[in-house]
Amino acid sequence: MPRETTPGSVRSAELNEQIRALWTRAGGRLDEQQRAEYERLVTAWAAAVRSDVTETV
Predict the structure, then answer these.
(1) In the chain, what percentage of residues exceed pLDDT 90?
(2) Measured between alpha carbons, how far is 22 from 38 in angstroms, rounded to an integer?
(3) Model pTM?
């Protein structure tokens, strides 16, 4: 997987917004396709948060 050029804190904020928008569009209930997208976004968000912590230390 290619490394993101966006700093972790910015990337995590962008991903957080995408996650919120997904839930809003779905009305709080995710279908199978939306669930897969949610899992992808949360995994990417967690990686961005980890990289931000690593960069900060």
Answers:
(1) 67
(2) 7
(3) 0.78
